[in-house]
Amino acid sequence: MSTGERTRGAVRPESVLYDAPGPRAVRRARLLSLIVLAAFAVLVLLAARRLYEQGEFDAELWSPLFWPGDEQFTAVWRRLLLGLSTTLQAAALTIVFSLVLGTLVTIVRLLTGRLARTPLVIVLEVLRGAPVVILIFFTARLLPTVGIDLSLLWYLVIGLTAYNFVVIGEIVRAGVAAVPRGQVEAGLAVGLNRRQVMTIVQLPQAFRIMLPALISQLVVIVKDTSLAAIVLTGPQELLRTGRTIEQNLNNPLQTYLLIAILYIILNGLLSRLAVSLENRLGRAASPHGP
Amino acid sequence: MDAVTDNLDLFVAGYWRSVTICLYALVGSLVWGTVLAMCRVSPVAPLRTFGSGYVLAVRNTPLTVMLFTTAFVLPQLGFNAPFFWLGVLGLVLYSSAFVCEAVRSGINAVPTGQSEAARAIGLTFGQSLRSVILPQALRTVVPPLGSVVIAMFKNSAVLGAFGVGGDLFSISNRLTSAQGYAVAPVLVGVLVGYLAITLPAGALLGVLERRVAILR
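^ Those are the sequences you sent over. The predicted structure of the assembly is below.
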């Protein structure tokens, strides 16, 4: 935690570009701050006027979403919370499946010879190089043609997993690599075989190391669940719920604003969790740690 | 494989459409992302707040929400542009947050001693930026920026799914839904299209990363 964020005012810019400013530079920075603030104020006012002219400040556009006294408020929020829980459900299923598959694949990659590894690596590279939207879309198209009929939520989860388990596999690999060599040697020295060392010595420690990266990936997954709203016809996750609400109330600006805020809060909390875990683990880690 | 061979021209056209989307978005988000990064390292506090607020908000919002906003909200406010441009605008607004973080991390990765040394031997701000800081910053920026560009190409598929039309994704959608081609061959065709860009780009990035790496 260095620079910037904590220091108040224009005293320490968070960059290598400048010296610590002297009195003249501080005055100049203050003046510039005022000018910039004024410019922002003008922009905000212009935007507000535009919104006002378009009637976007009409109470009936906002109150079903933001005012608990509104008669539609409860119904709207029940839908939103349901959507939020569907989003979380899809994301949770995806991360669990991806973690299991990713770990298995990594074990196979690390413990098998080059010949057995090559086809696996090709498949992984293909999945990683493909856009997630495509994978979700084709999961929903392809699986029914081979007789696998599932709910749309599951198509979404499978499509997301097909991409994310590869990414998480890489995270696991990096985690295993970060476990100090001495651990492996000690494991082999007490008579464990290579597979046992992996499963009872390396992986448990690797999971600890990679927890922050996993949570960051969870943020990506939460965001990607919303792709279902454009390529599938369900499930009713957060964004699709928003679309339904917006079409009923005819207030896209207000609804998408709220939806964005919900995503930002959810993902912001997850990111913060990742950062604080990283700091805690960083402190507790071996002397090689950052 | 009839689905692909019969419609090869469609696939090629869709391919170029995807590349075009990506190029526009690339230029736009490089410009806007660099401006944001300048804001985040500037000595002016409100600009820093704006920059970090923008990045925080946009990084935690799905691209889809951004697209819904540019495509459904902007027209209602009287900004009428063709759907294609609204889509590209959404992609630019989204990707620039990631470009900003890449550029900023590059600048911050340059050790303070470097700029102090530059000032100590009497270089002006412009000189030290040009011949000391930027050359080192750019090297660190290359790998993360490359990943952003690859992600952007993949995200152009989201635009296609969203109905921008004519790109690789919408071709595949049209062939499998409306024209009833078998799904698997079309999937292969589309995947080859995307992989033809993302895999070499990823490999190139790996090479670049090794070549520009500096030991510190």
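The first helix of chain B runs from residue 2 to 6. Residues 2-215 of chain B form a domain with the MetI-like fold fold (CATH 1.10.3720.10).

Shout if you want it in another format.
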